[in-house]
Fold these 2 entries.
Entry 1:
Amino acid sequence: MSRRWKTLVPSVSVLLALAGCGAPPGPAPRGFAPRYEEPAAADAAHARFLRARRLPERAADALNAYLDLPYQVTVLARSCAGEGSGYDPETRRIELCYDDLTQERELVTTDEEVADVMTETLYHEAGHALVDVLDLPYGGDRAEEDAADRFAALMLIREGPDGERALRTAAEAYARTPPDPDDGRDEHAPPAARAAAHLCLLHGAAPERHADLADRTRGCTPTWPQARDAWTHDLAPLLR
Ligand SMILES: [Zn+2]
């Protein structure tokens, strides 16, 4: 699966052996590992924002405190020239795009809200990485996208009121996102449906703190216990 992984490890061992170094190779790296690429000039301010807020580090720390991965997944912040953030199973890389922030700043107002939306994106991509790690049998792109959204909600709800605020900000940003004209080919649910699914879980998890969502979420599915229990069941082999 990972060409980078399989070529790097043996070559390091060979180099150590050739150098006559008696120390055994250290344990293979594992867990979510943040990295930054130099940004394109147009993305320099976005890159500074991500670094200053340490969003990849903070997400990786929370994920690693919760889960013990069998190998390393890089969380790579980089300029993507509009490709959009994503997870690449070949390289086991989450690519978090500096240039996504241009679009996010059109949807939300404050730096705090931008950070909230990017954190939700990070956890969504981590959800894809975990579908890959666990080889979960999602039948179809849409089902995996929905599961990745539910993983993002789970991570944020686990963080308590601050995470709940971030989830709510991300949901409201989806609600303000215009529908994609290529909607039929987009693997994600329409933005309004993604917003509704997040708000459903949020109200289900903390109804007292989000009492104003009662009417908008009445009868919604999957419910918070269903979503939480499904992911917790799937994550069982990795839970610390
Ligand atoms: Zn996705």
Entry 2:
Amino acid sequence: MAGHRLVDQIKEVVDLVDLVSETVRLKRSGRRYSGLCPFHAEKTPSFFVDPDKQLFYCFGCGTGGDVIAFVMKHRGLDFHEAVRYLAERYNIPLEAGSGDPNRAGEKEELYKLIEEAQAFYHGLLFYDRRGKEAHEYLRKRGVPEKLAKEEKLGYAPDEWDALLNHFRRKGFDPEKGIKAGLFVKSSGGRIYDRFRRRLIFPIRDTKGRVVAFGGRSLDGTEPKYLNSPETPIYNKGSLLYQYDRARKALDSLTSGNRFVFLVEGYMDALAFHRVGEFRVVATLGTAFTGRHARLLKRMVDEVVLVYDGDSAGRKAMMRIFPFLLKEQIRASCVLLPEGLDPDDYFRSHNREDFEALFRRRIELGSFVLEEHIRDWDGTTEGKIAVVRELHEFLKDLDDPIILRDYVRKISEGLQVPEDAILFQFKKWSKRRGNSQKLASDKYPAEKGKTTPVYSPEEELIRLVVKNPWVIGEFRDQIREALSCASPALIEVARAVVDAAVQGDGELDVQGVYEKLSTDAAKSALSRIVVDDNPYYDKEMALMACADLIKACKKRGSEIEKSRLKDKLIEANRQGDVETIKVLLKELQALEACEMSIRGGRERI
Ligand SMILES: [Zn+2]
């Protein structure tokens, strides 16, 4: 029953922070959340949740894992029961798990096709004369070549079968290309390229894999932007353009506000990249959804909307407000000069200009209220209409302090007593069976810091998890250094090192977690991931890595030495001279080896 697909779906839908919040009052601190552990009695929080990696760990009692592990421990269920419980609670059909076992294989195939298409389009843009038109367009829009190459932008030529022929030459099945959203089949059965005469923007999923494309028309053909259709690997409602890069930028932040800019289009997002700001994501020509809001909530404390400086842009920002409010994400908006979108703006203004606008950003709720109040026509009927509209926006708000604040603003703007507004709100809410919940203080009063102590082996794995690129320098030494760790750590180390090698310096932590077979290993990984102390700079990480390898080896040889000494005592007792000789030799070799470890980095 609990097939991989079902587990995948559960993890896609269920947010660990939300689930844990039902029983633990979590407070955000930096990248993670902390609270009082539900599995042991404590007064200062040592229970942590990593919203991005979706893992939890308690430094007090050592319990840790993913969303399924949490339900297992919290409800006393076994794995299958926990999966069933979550599936039922979140309306995920159980049959999902018993479905086609080739599904994962199919997805892999689609990733490959998309990757091939990306390489093809990218090659056309930069290394084919047909790409000249798109090249020219980029130049006019002020997109530097470096950025275009980083983003692997591409060009789909003005032909019906450019990609199709390329696929045929490569021996790919065009039907699969249809499934990947690259080709379209006419009612007459003819297959042709979906993207023609368009600038191509690769769209990556949260893990950074290219899953779809957006195509900007270059000859005025409508639609201006054409996107890939939904496919087994591309779900518009749960993807944001540039999410993976924004997350990386936020991951490398050591302090400061955790916010992200939300914009409407590809070019707007790239405009931010142009001025060196990577904390930006864009909706993909679709409506903003609750899932988008939850994705953002995992990553930041505040979402800053930067939409077009016209009435359409302002309306679009207002539509997003209820979704962010419902997820209790702090939101604000930057108002651009009339008629400019972010891309226009950055062509006529510099980063300092924008910083000034940013500092004057308006809290999104206040913005929504002001916009509505401004529309009031001065009549009494108009007043009621505005209050009713605002109730639609605010009906899910369950923070009484913020609600009071908004009501006060409405009261001032429309000259209606606050009590009257609250009375109306309550009446409307009751009518739809949605009575205002009164939120309690969500956060524990105490602020506690837990600094875990690590063995050198654990510390070394932690370093690799946070800086997977070190694997390029130290791969074999790391493997060797970790060979004496506990079985659970060896399992974790193996999975982490393999994944880091495969990921070419990147690490898919959730993928590593899935590969682990024992609870001890899963818990060990959670502990390592959830801890927040990063190695800030590259040089420091390299030095620490070399030192830790040394420390691990030293510990390994100490363990080995005491094992040999035990054997020696036993051999002595039995008067086994031959064995004693062999053991003494081994001991000597070990000591020589230790000397060289102490000797310095170059001799390891
Ligand atoms: Zn605990």
